[in-house]
Amino acid sequence: MDDNDPGSRIALALDVPDLEAAKKLIEETREHVGTFKVGLELYTAVGPAAVEAVHAAGAKCFLDLKLHDIPATMGRSVAQAASMGVAYLTVHAVAGPSSLRQASDNAGSTRLLGVTVLTSLDAAELEAIGLSGGPRNAVDRLARLAWDAGLRGFVTSAHECAALRAALGEEAFLVTPGIRPAGSDVGDQKRVMTPADAIGAGADLLVVGRPIRDASDPAEAAANIARQVQLALAQ
Q1: Is 150 inside a domain boundary?
Q2: What is the pLDDT along the chain (235 residues), one digit of tens a residue?
């Protein structure tokens, strides 16, 4: 990752229904974005063709499937994803130590990202599913579990990013979704942060979706976020 290139810090979520829409968004924003995230919606619709479209544009592919299964299935699924040459692949940290170790052992050069607590969850929802103590405690507990299983990349809200950086050190690669430019709609996200604040909190890669995808001019929206990242890096 080039610390001086703002585009290398931005992952644009290709949350669109078909391949043509994905290719159009990639083409419009590629100048300002270094990584494109293929999530469940697009991958379910078109499969590996989405990954191929990202690679054809000369960008990194972030395959966001949030795998969570028994150890053997996790290992084989991670190996299949790694064979496509994706730069990043998400797995749920709550899959547990055995599944995470199998995932880590089969990742090859793909960087595994352990999903800690989704940014759509708050303390009340975590309590409802049995994770007490609030988001920060849950993030810390799940990240340490994944760390011990061999993962060095983590997906976390920017609100927990600084604490996780302090706990795990510089070796940890921290990815923060829920990024919103100042004044934009937060949608269904509950723990959001501006690009500059996320960089200041220690984030390595910022995941941006709706603020670019739904903008009237996606290219300008991506350029604006890149400028905010550039300023934050300069500081």
Answers
A1: yes
A2: 566 799 999 999 999 999 999 999 999 999 999 999 999 999 999 999 999 999 999 999 999 999 999 999 999 999 999 999 999 999 999 999 999 999 999 999 999 999 998 878 888 998 998 888 888 888 899 999 999 999 999 998 888 899 999 999 999 999 999 898 865 554 544 456 899 999 999 999 999 999 999 999 999 999 999 999 999 999 8
Active centre residues (catalytic): 66
DSSP for 152-185, please give it: -EEE--GGGHHHHHHHH-TT-EEEE--B--TT--
Q: Which residue has the tokens 């547990």?
A: 96
Is 2 part of any domain? no
Q: Is residue 125 domain-resident?
A: yes
**pTM of the predicted structure, to 2 decimals:** 0.92
E strands within the chain?
A: 10-13, 35-38, 60-67, 88-92, 111-115, 153-155, 173-176, 205-208
Which tokens go with 62? 């972030």
DSSP state of 193: B
Q: What is the CATH number of the domain that holds 213?
A: 3.20.20.70
Q: Structure tokens of 160?
A: 């927990």
Whether residue 37 is contained in a domain is answered as no
Number of domains composing the chain: 1
Question: Contact 170/6 with Cβ under 8 angstroms?
Answer: no
Q: Which domain holds residue 87?
A: 66-234
